[in-house]
Amino acid sequence: MPQIKALLELGPASAYQNDGPGFLYYPIRVAPGYQAAVEIKAGHTNDFRRRQHQYKKCKKGQDLWFVAYCETPYRMFAERLIHLRLRALGAHVDSYPCPGCGKEHREFFLLDIIGGFPEFEDVVCWAVTQAGGAYIRQNFLVES
């Protein structure tokens, strides 16, 4: 995992020029054509409510829910660490057009390859800690 090591050596304050406080969010969806395949995304934003609103149009043609979110001091740094770690586990899903909005949402991962949501959260907790934060999950159980 040389990319992870290199990113950690840069540190959260130096890795991304426009990085700063914000949110990590985790929507899940059922993969099209695969009833049992659940995909999860780790995304970042500085305005969670705006991002939530943007995903509303994605509900057409697929099941999509926001599960949880957390705050972090360096959102881009933490998100990149999560993506690198999940790719190393072999959980990456190739992007495909969203049935609701037509956009190709990148960086979804197969939840069963990771092991499940608790294992996903372990990766998120590790990344948020590396970014100088403390992982405190905010449950979001209402459909977006």
From TrEMBL:
Protein name in the entry: Bacteriophage T5 Orf172 DNA-binding domain-containing protein
Chain ranges of the Bacteriophage T5 Orf172 DNA-binding domain: 32-112
Which InterPro entries does this one have?
Answer: Phage_T5_Orf172_DNA-bd (IPR018306)
Pfam families in UniProt: T5orf172
Superkingdom of source: Eukaryota
